[in-house]
Design a protein that fits this description.
TIM Barrel, 12 helices, eight-stranded parallel barrel, about 290 residues, 10 strands, alpha/beta, globular
């Protein structure tokens, strides 16, 4: 159901407000450059700093602008189950093709708590769900056995964005859930994950090089491993530069340098350190973006 290059879209700001005109232009930019799907209101979209009204409006604008030309998977996860249900209900009403549910952060649930959280959302709203496992942001790993239990019991939990950084864990999930779509949550591991059965990526670097990421994923899915490998190596240093500082600081800085949107961030995200910015600019120049 979910295959290819999905972009973890930034949320453009202007003078402290969401820049909806810039947002629409970014959606068109991705459609033009072969991105398979757009994921608004995720970590890269600074969802934690969006108020409820903004969160819903961003999803609504992206869905309307995409107009079924590509898939839209709305980030609706929260550390509150009730809040997750509320936002997921809105995403379905707005016409999203699916939702991305990050595991609850800060409150550090047990595996049983994670299972009950995701199952309640899946039971309440009939929409395709992609689980999002990123322990570095949430403090808790969704264990493969928990993923398997959810996938087997909930027909609409159909995919997982895996950002554990562990190919061993990804392999185990793949073995336990051979029919579940697995997408990389780490650009540097997209190709390795695809080699063990992954279907693509929810990408940060695709914000600035959507065609290259899409071409790499498409090449591998079509069996052109050599082309995919070459793309992987070409993208590698630029990809690593996207994480010199906390995401989305580098990628938004890069987008500002490229004129794609403002580099404005919301506190507690702040402007990039100048020395790190110099490193970023160097990699962008090496890649041919500047």
């Amino acid at each position: 159901m979910f295959e290819g290059s999905y972009v973890a879209l930034v949320t453009p700001f202007k003078n402290g407000q969401v820049d909806f005109e810039a947002l629409k232009k970014l959606v068109e930019f991705h459609i033009k450059n072969g991105t398979n799907g757009i994921v608004p209101c995720g970590t890269t979209g600074e969802s934690a700093t969006l108020n409820y009204e903004e969160h819903e409006k961003v999803i609504e604008v992206v869905v309307k602008t995409a107009a079924r030309r590509i898939k839209v998977v709305a980030g609706t996860g929260s550390n509150s189950t009730a809040e997750t249900i509320e936002m997921t209900t809105f995403a379905k009403k707005a016409g999203a093709d699916g939702v991305l549910l990050v595991s609850p952060y800060y409150n550090k649930p047990t595996q049983k708590g994670l299972y009950l959280h995701f199952k309640k959302v899946a039971d309440e709203i009939d929409i395709p769900i992609i689980l999002y496992n990123i322990q570095s942001r949430t403090a808790v790993n969704i264990e493969p056995e928990t993923v398997a239990k959810l996938h087997s019991e909930c027909k609409n939990i159909v995919a997982i964005k895996e950002a554990s950084g562990s190919l061993e864990q990804m392999t185990k999930i793949r073995m336990l859930c051979p029919k579940m779509d697995m997408l990389s949550g780490d650009d540097a591991l997209t190709l390795p994950l695809m080699s063990i059965g992954g279907k693509g990526v929810v990408s940060v670097v695709a914000n600035i090089v959507p065609k290259d990421v899409s071409d790499m994923v498409r090449a591998y899915l079509k069996g052109d491993v050599e082309k995919a490998k070459n793309s992987h190596y070409k993208l590698f240093n630029l990809t690593k530069a996207m994480f010199i500082e906390t995401n989305p600081i580098p990628v938004k800085t890069a987008m500002g340098l490229m004129g794609l949107c403002s580099d404005e961030l919301r506190l507690p995200m702040c402007a990039m350190d100048e020395k790190n910015k110099e490193k970023l600019i160097k990699e962008m120049k090496n890649y041919g973006l500047l």
